[in-house]
Write a structure and sequence with these properties.
There is one protein chain. This protein has twelve helices and nine strands. The protein is an alpha/beta fold and about 300 residues long. The longest helix is centred in the middle third of the chain and has 29 residues, at about 165-195. The termini are far apart. The structure holds nicotinamide-adenine-dinucleotide. Nicotinamide-adenine-dinucleotide binds near residues 11, 32, 73 and 94. Keywords: Branched-chain amino acid catabolism, NAD, Oxidoreductase.
């Protein structure tokens, strides 16, 4: 297949490489020269604009930082919807608000181009290994059509519903994750302050009702989980600034829907402070720093 890939960063770079490994012809574009060099070295065809990449393609995949970039690439003055052939398919895997992708899909429909949202979980490691989970918002026929492309980059393809619902799933999951990670950090810090050995405390939590992914697999206290970022100085994980972005999307969506997100708003403020304190690039489990300066 001829596939255009727009946004070859930490996630997109690896995802595009997996498409190349599966034998697809990939036309790539990114603003970063370094990203383009890595892509070319892996066998990708470098293009000098999103339109130049999209013109050649039956399928477009985009993996961009935020909604304004996605809007610009699809709907902007030099947007790809102006050049895509009728019948082509677009998959946006960026994490953005549901409304933006719904607007893009509506504009695309007028040109007989199908668009779906397919945000991911699994992080940079999942992108590299081709084991991402895709949360897909699309009608049934479009979901079937994008499956062969997505399965080159991920192992779980979840059909969430109509366009936009992939983003809803992603936003709600990360809202819960941000809250649960903060809850575990708060509990671990309190226990340590009150004198219990953190290993013993984690053991109790993980065989009791406080157990969750954040306590068991990704505990924010150092040296509880050997492979978690907390055991290597909170490096190489899911950056606190990306968690802050996702919490912002959840809080904004809740405001528009007039639905309370009480804990989400509080945790958003804690992540804002963490990022302002200079920890934006650390893994999001470094929320531990808001509770203790010496978690060891
Ligand atoms: P990144 O910043 O590493 O990559 C984004 C790339 O987009 C950059 O290389 C940038 O140069 C490029 N770009 C920006 N504007 C562009 C434009 N107009 N045209 C072409 N390229 C453009 O970000 P990332 O970590 O790869 O994340 C991408 C998306 O995936 C984000 O929406 C993020 O929230 C989401 N996400 C990231 C992770 C993660 O662990 N990094 C996990 C899940 C979801």
């Amino acid at each position: 297949m001829k596939i255009a890939f727009i946004g070859l960063g930490n996630m997109g770079g690896s995802m595009a490489q997996n498409l190349l490994k599966s034998g697809h012809q990939v036309f790539g574009y990114d603003l970063s020269e370094t990203a383009l060099q890595h892509f070319a070295a892996a066998g990708g065809i470098v293009c000098d604009s999103p339109q130049a990449a999209a013109k050649q393609a039956e399928v477009v995949v985009s993996m961009l930082p935020a909604a304004k970039h996605v809007r610009d690439v699809y709907l902007g003055k030099h947007g790809i919807l102006n050049v895509l052939q009728a019948g082509s398919l677009c998959i946006d895997s960026s994490t953005i608000d549901p409304q933006t992708i719904q607007e893009i899909a509506a504009a695309a429909q007028a040109k007989q181009v199908r668009v779906c949202d397919a945000p991911v979980s699994g992080g940079t490691l999942g992108a590299k290994d081709g084991t991402l989970t895709f949360m897909v918002g699309a009608d049934d026929a479009t979901f079937e059509a994008v499956k062969p492309v997505l399965s080159c980059m991920g192992k779980n393809l979840v059909h969430c519903g109509a366009v936009g619902t992939g983003q809803v799933a992603k936003i709600c999951n990360n809202l819960i994750l941000g809250i649960s990670m903060t809850a575990v950090a708060e509990g671990m810090a309190l226990g340590a302050k009150l004198g219990i050995d953190p290993q013993a405390l984690a053991g109790v939590i993980n065989s009791s009702t406080g157990r969750c992914w954040s306590s068991e697999i990704y505990n924010p206290w150092p040296d509880i989980c050997a492979n978690a970022p907390s055991s290597r100085g909170y490096t190489d994980g899911f950056a606190a600034q990306l968690m802050l972005k996702d919490l912002g999307l959840a809080v904004d969506a809740a405001q528009q829907a007039e639905q309370p997100v009480v804990l989400g708003s509080m945790v958003q403020k804690l992540y804002q402070q963490l990022c302002q304190d200079g920890h934006a690039h650390l893994d999001f489990s470094s929320i531990m720093h808001q509770y203790t300066t010496t978690p060891a």
